Amino acid sequence: MMRVLLLSHTTGYQLRAFNDAAAELGIQLLFATDRCHMLDDPWQDHAVAVRFHDLERSVEAIRRTAEDAPIAGVIAVGDRPVVLAAHAAAALGLPWHSIDGAVASADKRRSRAALAMAGLPSPNHVVVRVGSAHADLPRDGGVEYPCVLKPIGLSGSRGVIRADSPAEFAAAFGRIRALLARPQVRSARAGLEDEILVESFIPGREYAIEAVATHGRLTVFAIFDKPDPLDGPFFEETIYVTPSRASRAVQRAIVSTVERAVDALGLQHGPVHAECRVGDDGRVFVLEVAARPIGGLCSRVLRFGGPERTAPRDRGWSLEHVLLEHALQRPIDGYERERDAAAVMMIPIPARGLLKGIAGEEDARAVPGVDEVRITAKRDQLLEPLPEAGSYLGFIFARGTTPRDAEHAVRAAHACLRFDIASPIPITAR
Protein backbone atom coordinates (compact mmCIF):
# COMPACT_ATOMS: atom_id res chain seq x y z
CA MET A 1 0.00 0.00 0.00
CA MET A 2 1.40 3.40 -1.05
CA ARG A 3 1.86 5.87 1.81
CA VAL A 4 1.38 9.64 1.73
CA LEU A 5 2.65 12.00 4.43
CA LEU A 6 -0.05 14.52 5.39
CA LEU A 7 1.06 17.51 7.48
CA SER A 8 -1.62 19.44 9.32
CA HIS A 9 -2.73 21.02 12.55
CA THR A 10 -4.49 18.56 14.84
CA THR A 11 -7.72 20.54 14.42
CA GLY A 12 -7.76 20.72 10.62
CA TYR A 13 -11.22 20.34 9.07
CA GLN A 14 -9.87 18.45 6.08
CA LEU A 15 -8.21 15.57 7.89
CA ARG A 16 -11.32 13.36 7.78
CA ALA A 17 -11.89 14.16 4.09
CA PHE A 18 -8.35 13.09 3.23
CA ASN A 19 -8.66 10.00 5.42
CA ASP A 20 -11.90 8.93 3.70
CA ALA A 21 -10.44 9.56 0.25
CA ALA A 22 -7.30 7.59 1.09
CA ALA A 23 -9.37 4.62 2.25
CA GLU A 24 -11.35 4.59 -1.01
CA LEU A 25 -8.17 4.81 -3.10
CA GLY A 26 -6.27 2.19 -1.13
CA ILE A 27 -3.70 4.72 0.09
CA GLN A 28 -2.25 4.78 3.60
CA LEU A 29 -1.89 8.16 5.30
CA LEU A 30 0.86 9.05 7.73
CA PHE A 31 -0.17 12.13 9.69
CA ALA A 32 2.35 14.63 11.02
CA THR A 33 0.60 17.09 13.34
CA ASP A 34 1.49 19.67 15.97
CA ARG A 35 0.66 17.61 19.05
CA CYS A 36 2.48 17.11 22.30
CA HIS A 37 5.30 14.63 21.80
CA MET A 38 5.12 13.63 25.46
CA LEU A 39 1.67 12.05 25.08
CA ASP A 40 1.39 8.53 23.74
CA ASP A 41 -0.75 8.86 20.61
CA PRO A 42 -3.75 10.63 22.25
CA TRP A 43 -5.85 10.53 19.05
CA GLN A 44 -4.90 6.92 18.23
CA ASP A 45 -3.93 7.84 14.68
CA HIS A 46 -0.21 6.92 14.90
CA ALA A 47 0.77 10.44 13.84
CA VAL A 48 4.27 11.86 14.00
CA ALA A 49 4.42 14.65 16.60
CA VAL A 50 6.01 17.74 15.05
CA ARG A 51 6.51 21.41 15.82
CA PHE A 52 6.18 23.70 12.82
CA HIS A 53 8.66 26.17 14.30
CA ASP A 54 11.25 23.44 14.96
CA LEU A 55 12.05 22.33 11.44
CA GLU A 56 15.22 20.35 12.10
CA ARG A 57 13.80 18.09 14.81
CA SER A 58 10.49 17.68 13.01
CA VAL A 59 12.14 16.64 9.74
CA GLU A 60 14.31 14.17 11.64
CA ALA A 61 11.22 12.65 13.30
CA ILE A 62 9.59 12.23 9.90
CA ARG A 63 12.76 10.79 8.38
CA ARG A 64 13.06 8.19 11.17
CA THR A 65 9.45 7.14 10.63
CA ALA A 66 10.08 6.80 6.89
CA GLU A 67 12.87 4.31 7.59
CA ASP A 68 10.30 1.78 8.81
CA ALA A 69 7.90 2.25 5.90
CA PRO A 70 8.74 4.34 2.81
CA ILE A 71 6.76 7.50 2.05
CA ALA A 72 5.79 7.97 -1.59
CA GLY A 73 4.16 11.42 -1.51
CA VAL A 74 3.70 14.58 0.55
CA ILE A 75 0.77 16.95 1.03
CA ALA A 76 0.07 19.76 3.50
CA VAL A 77 -3.11 21.37 4.81
CA GLY A 78 -2.90 24.91 6.21
CA ASP A 79 -0.34 27.68 5.80
CA ARG A 80 1.97 26.75 8.70
CA PRO A 81 2.48 23.10 7.67
CA VAL A 82 3.54 23.92 4.09
CA VAL A 83 7.06 25.02 5.08
CA LEU A 84 7.74 21.87 7.07
CA ALA A 85 6.26 19.84 4.20
CA ALA A 86 8.77 21.41 1.81
CA HIS A 87 11.68 20.57 4.11
CA ALA A 88 10.38 17.02 4.63
CA ALA A 89 9.93 16.45 0.89
CA ALA A 90 13.47 17.67 0.22
CA ALA A 91 14.86 15.34 2.90
CA LEU A 92 12.91 12.38 1.51
CA GLY A 93 13.71 13.14 -2.13
CA LEU A 94 10.04 13.59 -3.06
CA PRO A 95 8.55 16.12 -5.50
CA TRP A 96 6.80 19.03 -3.85
CA HIS A 97 6.98 22.80 -3.69
CA SER A 98 10.43 24.31 -3.19
CA ILE A 99 11.43 25.40 0.30
CA ASP A 100 11.79 29.02 -0.82
CA GLY A 101 8.40 28.87 -2.52
CA ALA A 102 6.69 27.43 0.54
CA VAL A 103 8.25 30.09 2.79
CA ALA A 104 7.21 32.89 0.43
CA SER A 105 3.66 31.58 0.14
CA ALA A 106 3.20 31.88 3.92
CA ASP A 107 4.84 35.32 4.23
CA LYS A 108 3.03 38.27 2.62
CA ARG A 109 6.21 40.35 2.64
CA ARG A 110 8.28 37.79 0.70
CA SER A 111 5.39 37.04 -1.62
CA ARG A 112 4.89 40.72 -2.52
CA ALA A 113 8.60 41.15 -3.21
CA ALA A 114 8.79 38.05 -5.43
CA LEU A 115 5.72 39.02 -7.48
CA ALA A 116 6.93 42.58 -7.97
CA MET A 117 10.38 41.34 -9.04
CA ALA A 118 8.69 39.13 -11.65
CA GLY A 119 7.02 42.20 -13.13
CA LEU A 120 3.51 41.26 -12.07
CA PRO A 121 1.05 44.05 -11.25
CA SER A 122 1.51 44.81 -7.57
CA PRO A 123 0.17 47.50 -5.27
CA ASN A 124 2.61 49.89 -3.65
CA HIS A 125 3.47 48.47 -0.27
CA VAL A 126 5.68 48.89 2.78
CA VAL A 127 6.29 46.84 5.92
CA VAL A 128 5.81 48.42 9.35
CA ARG A 129 6.83 46.89 12.67
CA VAL A 130 4.11 46.66 15.31
CA GLY A 131 6.43 48.34 17.80
CA SER A 132 6.66 51.52 15.73
CA ALA A 133 6.29 54.65 17.83
CA HIS A 134 4.14 56.42 15.22
CA ALA A 135 1.12 54.51 13.95
CA ASP A 136 0.75 56.50 10.75
CA LEU A 137 1.04 55.83 7.04
CA PRO A 138 4.76 55.57 6.18
CA ARG A 139 6.17 58.26 3.90
CA ASP A 140 8.21 55.79 1.86
CA GLY A 141 6.82 53.03 -0.36
CA GLY A 142 4.45 55.23 -2.33
CA VAL A 143 1.39 54.06 -0.39
CA GLU A 144 -1.49 56.52 -0.20
CA TYR A 145 -5.00 56.45 1.22
CA PRO A 146 -7.07 54.36 0.94
CA CYS A 147 -4.71 51.61 2.06
CA VAL A 148 -5.01 48.12 3.54
CA LEU A 149 -3.14 46.84 6.61
CA LYS A 150 -2.38 43.10 6.72
CA PRO A 151 -0.55 41.01 9.32
CA ILE A 152 2.40 39.38 7.57
CA GLY A 153 1.75 35.84 8.77
CA LEU A 154 -2.03 35.49 9.26
CA SER A 155 -4.44 34.13 6.65
CA GLY A 156 -8.12 34.04 5.82
CA SER A 157 -8.53 37.85 5.95
CA ARG A 158 -7.75 37.75 9.66
CA GLY A 159 -6.50 41.14 10.81
CA VAL A 160 -6.94 42.72 7.36
CA ILE A 161 -8.35 46.26 7.69
CA ARG A 162 -8.82 49.14 5.26
CA ALA A 163 -7.96 52.69 6.32
CA ASP A 164 -9.04 55.83 4.50
CA SER A 165 -7.51 58.43 6.82
CA PRO A 166 -4.79 58.87 9.48
CA ALA A 167 -7.35 58.32 12.24
CA GLU A 168 -8.53 55.07 10.66
CA PHE A 169 -4.92 53.98 10.11
CA ALA A 170 -4.09 54.52 13.78
CA ALA A 171 -7.21 52.60 14.88
CA ALA A 172 -6.48 49.72 12.50
CA PHE A 173 -2.83 49.61 13.51
CA GLY A 174 -3.75 49.39 17.20
CA ARG A 175 -6.32 46.70 16.55
CA ILE A 176 -3.88 44.54 14.58
CA ARG A 177 -1.15 45.09 17.17
CA ALA A 178 -3.53 43.81 19.88
CA LEU A 179 -4.40 40.78 17.75
CA LEU A 180 -0.75 39.91 17.16
CA ALA A 181 -0.06 40.19 20.90
CA ARG A 182 -2.54 37.43 21.74
CA PRO A 183 -0.91 34.37 23.33
CA GLN A 184 -2.40 31.96 20.76
CA VAL A 185 -0.88 34.01 17.92
CA ARG A 186 2.51 34.40 19.64
CA SER A 187 2.62 30.70 20.51
CA ALA A 188 2.72 29.79 16.82
CA ARG A 189 6.28 31.14 16.79
CA ALA A 190 6.18 31.73 13.06
CA GLY A 191 8.56 34.66 13.30
CA LEU A 192 5.98 36.82 11.53
CA GLU A 193 4.15 38.26 14.53
CA ASP A 194 5.84 41.65 14.65
CA GLU A 195 5.26 43.12 11.19
CA ILE A 196 2.32 44.54 9.25
CA LEU A 197 2.14 44.91 5.49
CA VAL A 198 0.60 48.21 4.37
CA GLU A 199 -0.42 48.39 0.72
CA SER A 200 -2.52 50.53 -1.58
CA PHE A 201 -6.17 49.51 -1.88
CA ILE A 202 -7.09 48.08 -5.30
CA PRO A 203 -10.68 48.77 -6.43
CA GLY A 204 -12.18 45.80 -8.27
CA ARG A 205 -13.65 42.31 -7.96
CA GLU A 206 -12.04 39.34 -6.23
CA TYR A 207 -11.64 35.78 -7.48
CA ALA A 208 -10.16 32.58 -6.08
CA ILE A 209 -8.38 29.88 -8.08
CA GLU A 210 -8.04 26.23 -7.13
CA ALA A 211 -5.29 24.40 -8.97
CA VAL A 212 -2.38 22.02 -8.77
CA ALA A 213 1.19 22.40 -10.01
CA THR A 214 2.82 19.40 -11.69
CA HIS A 215 6.57 19.90 -11.98
CA GLY A 216 5.93 23.59 -12.56
CA ARG A 217 2.92 23.25 -14.90
CA LEU A 218 -0.38 24.57 -13.54
CA THR A 219 -3.69 22.73 -13.91
CA VAL A 220 -6.68 24.87 -12.90
CA PHE A 221 -9.66 23.06 -11.39
CA ALA A 222 -11.91 26.07 -10.82
CA ILE A 223 -12.13 29.84 -10.84
CA PHE A 224 -14.43 31.07 -8.07
CA ASP A 225 -16.32 34.34 -8.18
CA LYS A 226 -16.67 36.21 -4.90
CA PRO A 227 -20.02 37.88 -5.61
CA ASP A 228 -20.08 40.12 -2.55
CA PRO A 229 -18.06 43.36 -2.90
CA LEU A 230 -14.93 43.22 -0.77
CA ASP A 231 -14.22 46.90 -0.26
CA GLY A 232 -13.65 46.97 3.50
CA PRO A 233 -13.22 48.07 6.15
CA PHE A 234 -12.93 44.30 6.72
CA PHE A 235 -12.62 41.63 4.04
CA GLU A 236 -14.74 38.70 5.12
CA GLU A 237 -14.90 36.08 2.40
CA THR A 238 -18.43 34.73 2.47
CA ILE A 239 -19.49 33.12 -0.83
CA TYR A 240 -17.53 31.30 -3.53
CA VAL A 241 -19.32 30.42 -6.78
CA THR A 242 -18.08 28.41 -9.75
CA PRO A 243 -17.96 28.40 -12.74
CA SER A 244 -16.98 32.03 -12.93
CA ARG A 245 -19.30 34.50 -14.64
CA ALA A 246 -16.36 36.67 -15.68
CA SER A 247 -15.73 37.03 -19.40
CA ARG A 248 -13.45 34.52 -21.09
CA ALA A 249 -10.87 37.25 -21.57
CA VAL A 250 -10.84 38.02 -17.84
CA GLN A 251 -10.62 34.34 -16.96
CA ARG A 252 -7.69 33.86 -19.34
CA ALA A 253 -5.96 36.86 -17.78
CA ILE A 254 -6.53 35.45 -14.28
CA VAL A 255 -5.08 32.05 -15.17
CA SER A 256 -2.13 33.53 -17.04
CA THR A 257 -1.26 35.85 -14.16
CA VAL A 258 -1.56 33.11 -11.55
CA GLU A 259 0.70 30.88 -13.68
CA ARG A 260 3.34 33.61 -13.66
CA ALA A 261 2.91 34.07 -9.91
CA VAL A 262 3.33 30.35 -9.23
CA ASP A 263 6.54 30.37 -11.26
CA ALA A 264 7.79 33.54 -9.54
CA LEU A 265 7.31 32.04 -6.08
CA GLY A 266 8.87 28.70 -6.97
CA LEU A 267 5.81 26.54 -6.36
CA GLN A 268 6.62 23.39 -8.28
CA HIS A 269 4.54 20.36 -7.36
CA GLY A 270 1.40 20.22 -5.25
CA PRO A 271 -1.82 22.08 -4.44
CA VAL A 272 -2.17 25.78 -5.21
CA HIS A 273 -4.85 28.12 -3.88
CA ALA A 274 -4.65 31.68 -5.21
CA GLU A 275 -6.59 34.87 -4.52
CA CYS A 276 -6.59 37.77 -6.95
CA ARG A 277 -8.35 41.04 -7.64
CA VAL A 278 -9.16 42.32 -11.10
CA GLY A 279 -8.80 46.08 -10.96
CA ASP A 280 -11.10 48.57 -12.60
CA ASP A 281 -8.48 48.97 -15.33
CA GLY A 282 -8.57 45.23 -16.12
CA ARG A 283 -5.20 44.37 -14.59
CA VAL A 284 -5.01 41.22 -12.45
CA PHE A 285 -3.38 41.72 -9.06
CA VAL A 286 -2.41 38.52 -7.26
CA LEU A 287 -3.19 38.93 -3.57
CA GLU A 288 -1.76 35.60 -2.44
CA VAL A 289 -0.66 32.22 -3.73
CA ALA A 290 -0.80 29.49 -1.11
CA ALA A 291 1.01 26.15 -1.40
CA ARG A 292 -2.03 24.27 -0.08
CA PRO A 293 -5.60 23.40 -1.05
CA ILE A 294 -8.61 25.59 -0.31
CA GLY A 295 -9.21 25.83 3.45
CA GLY A 296 -11.85 24.60 5.87
CA LEU A 297 -14.57 22.41 4.43
CA CYS A 298 -14.77 24.49 1.25
CA SER A 299 -13.24 21.72 -0.85
CA ARG A 300 -16.62 19.96 -0.73
CA VAL A 301 -17.89 22.47 -3.27
CA LEU A 302 -15.77 20.69 -5.91
CA ARG A 303 -16.73 17.32 -7.35
CA PHE A 304 -15.04 15.40 -10.13
CA GLY A 305 -15.96 12.64 -12.51
CA GLY A 306 -13.45 9.85 -12.10
CA PRO A 307 -11.34 8.06 -14.69
CA GLU A 308 -12.66 4.83 -16.15
CA ARG A 309 -10.34 2.69 -14.07
CA THR A 310 -12.11 3.75 -10.88
CA ALA A 311 -15.52 2.73 -9.66
CA PRO A 312 -18.29 5.32 -10.09
CA ARG A 313 -19.46 7.23 -7.02
CA ASP A 314 -22.88 8.79 -6.56
CA ARG A 315 -21.48 12.12 -5.36
CA GLY A 316 -18.40 12.18 -7.56
CA TRP A 317 -14.78 12.18 -6.51
CA SER A 318 -13.55 14.85 -4.14
CA LEU A 319 -10.66 17.29 -4.43
CA GLU A 320 -8.89 15.20 -1.78
CA HIS A 321 -9.05 12.14 -4.07
CA VAL A 322 -7.42 14.07 -6.89
CA LEU A 323 -4.71 15.59 -4.68
CA LEU A 324 -3.77 12.24 -3.15
CA GLU A 325 -3.40 10.67 -6.59
CA HIS A 326 -1.32 13.67 -7.65
CA ALA A 327 0.91 13.36 -4.57
CA LEU A 328 1.76 9.83 -5.71
CA GLN A 329 2.57 11.17 -9.20
CA ARG A 330 -0.32 9.31 -10.74
CA PRO A 331 -1.99 10.91 -13.77
CA ILE A 332 -5.01 13.05 -12.92
CA ASP A 333 -6.07 13.84 -16.49
CA GLY A 334 -9.04 11.50 -16.12
CA TYR A 335 -10.61 13.66 -13.42
CA GLU A 336 -12.96 16.34 -14.71
CA ARG A 337 -14.92 18.79 -12.58
CA GLU A 338 -18.68 18.35 -12.76
CA ARG A 339 -20.57 20.68 -15.08
CA ASP A 340 -23.20 21.85 -12.58
CA ALA A 341 -22.66 25.21 -10.94
CA ALA A 342 -21.74 25.12 -7.25
CA ALA A 343 -21.49 27.55 -4.36
CA VAL A 344 -20.28 27.52 -0.80
CA MET A 345 -21.04 30.05 1.90
CA MET A 346 -18.68 30.38 4.83
CA ILE A 347 -21.26 31.37 7.43
CA PRO A 348 -20.09 34.66 8.95
CA ILE A 349 -20.11 35.33 12.68
CA PRO A 350 -22.55 38.21 13.25
CA ALA A 351 -21.43 39.27 16.74
CA ARG A 352 -18.99 38.52 19.53
CA GLY A 353 -20.34 36.28 22.27
CA LEU A 354 -21.15 32.74 23.38
CA LEU A 355 -23.06 30.55 20.96
CA LYS A 356 -26.21 29.31 22.69
CA GLY A 357 -28.10 27.84 19.77
CA ILE A 358 -29.00 27.94 16.09
CA ALA A 359 -32.56 27.72 14.78
CA GLY A 360 -33.79 27.14 11.25
CA GLU A 361 -31.34 24.46 10.15
CA GLU A 362 -34.04 22.15 8.78
CA ASP A 363 -35.60 25.00 6.80
CA ALA A 364 -32.16 25.86 5.43
CA ARG A 365 -31.54 22.27 4.33
CA ALA A 366 -34.94 22.21 2.60
CA VAL A 367 -34.05 25.09 0.27
CA PRO A 368 -33.98 23.77 -3.33
CA GLY A 369 -30.42 23.23 -4.50
CA VAL A 370 -28.88 23.07 -1.02
CA ASP A 371 -26.67 20.02 -0.56
CA GLU A 372 -25.54 20.47 2.99
CA VAL A 373 -25.64 22.82 5.95
CA ARG A 374 -22.74 22.06 8.25
CA ILE A 375 -22.45 23.96 11.54
CA THR A 376 -18.91 23.62 12.88
CA ALA A 377 -19.11 26.01 15.86
CA LYS A 378 -19.96 24.36 19.18
CA ARG A 379 -22.49 25.39 21.80
CA ASP A 380 -20.99 27.78 24.39
CA GLN A 381 -18.03 28.46 22.09
CA LEU A 382 -16.81 32.03 22.22
CA LEU A 383 -17.44 33.54 18.80
CA GLU A 384 -15.61 36.51 17.40
CA PRO A 385 -16.21 38.23 14.05
CA LEU A 386 -13.53 39.48 11.71
CA PRO A 387 -11.03 41.02 11.72
CA GLU A 388 -10.05 39.15 14.92
CA ALA A 389 -11.86 35.90 14.05
CA GLY A 390 -9.99 32.79 13.01
CA SER A 391 -12.98 30.66 12.02
CA TYR A 392 -16.56 30.61 10.74
CA LEU A 393 -19.86 29.37 12.16
CA GLY A 394 -20.06 26.71 9.50
CA PHE A 395 -20.65 26.13 5.78
CA ILE A 396 -23.57 25.96 3.35
CA PHE A 397 -23.19 24.08 0.05
CA ALA A 398 -25.50 24.27 -2.95
CA ARG A 399 -25.67 23.32 -6.61
CA GLY A 400 -27.66 24.60 -9.52
CA THR A 401 -28.01 24.72 -13.27
CA THR A 402 -26.38 28.16 -13.31
CA PRO A 403 -24.01 30.00 -10.96
CA ARG A 404 -26.86 32.39 -10.13
CA ASP A 405 -29.04 29.45 -9.00
CA ALA A 406 -26.31 28.09 -6.71
CA GLU A 407 -25.60 31.51 -5.24
CA HIS A 408 -29.30 32.17 -4.63
CA ALA A 409 -29.63 28.81 -2.84
CA VAL A 410 -26.87 29.48 -0.29
CA ARG A 411 -28.21 32.99 0.36
CA ALA A 412 -31.75 31.67 0.86
CA ALA A 413 -30.52 28.95 3.22
CA HIS A 414 -28.53 31.46 5.24
CA ALA A 415 -31.62 33.65 5.57
CA CYS A 416 -33.36 30.74 7.31
CA LEU A 417 -30.77 30.55 10.10
CA ARG A 418 -31.16 32.43 13.38
CA PHE A 419 -28.27 32.61 15.82
CA ASP A 420 -28.60 32.94 19.59
CA ILE A 421 -25.37 34.60 20.76
CA ALA A 422 -25.09 35.71 24.37
CA SER A 423 -22.78 38.45 25.53
CA PRO A 424 -19.64 37.00 27.11
CA ILE A 425 -19.28 37.29 30.86
CA PRO A 426 -16.65 39.95 31.59
CA ILE A 427 -13.74 38.90 33.78
CA THR A 428 -12.19 41.57 35.94
CA ALA A 429 -8.94 41.24 37.86
CA ARG A 430 -8.92 41.98 41.58
The number of distinct structural domains comes to: 4
Measured as a percent range, the helix fraction is 25-40%
Largest sheet: 4 strands, parallel
> What's the mean pLDDT score?
89
Question: Can you tell me about this structure?
Answer:
28% of the residues lie in helices and 28% in strands. By secondary structure, the protein is an alpha+beta fold. The chain folds into four domains: 3-104, Rossmann fold (3-Layer(aba) Sandwich), CATH 3.40.50; 124-200, 2-Layer Sandwich (Dna Ligase, domain 1), CATH 3.30.1490; 204-337, ATP-grasp fold, B domain (D-amino Acid Aminotransferase, Chain A, domain 1, 2-Layer Sandwich), CATH 3.30.470; 341-422, 2-Layer Sandwich (D-amino Acid Aminotransferase, Chain A, domain 1), CATH 3.30.470.20. The strands form six sheets. A four-stranded parallel beta sheet has the order 3-2-1-4, sandwiched between helices. A four-stranded antiparallel beta sheet has the order 5-8-6-7, sandwiched between helices. Strand 1, helix 1 and strand 2 form a beta-alpha-beta unit. The chain is globular. The N and C termini lie far apart (60 Å).
Q: Layout of helices and strands, plus pairs?
A:
Elements: E1 3-8, H1 15-25, E2 28-33, E3 48-49, H2 55-68, E4 73-76, H3 79-92, H4 99-105, H5 108-117, E5 125-129, E6 147-151, E7 161-163, H6 166-180, H7 183-186, E8 195-200, E9 204-214, E10 217-225, E11 239-242, H8 248-265, E12 270-279, E13 284-290, E14 303-305, E15 317-318, H9 319-327, E16 336-337, E17 341-347, E18 353-359, H10 361-365, E19 370-375, E20 382-383, E21 394-400, H11 403-416, E22 418-422
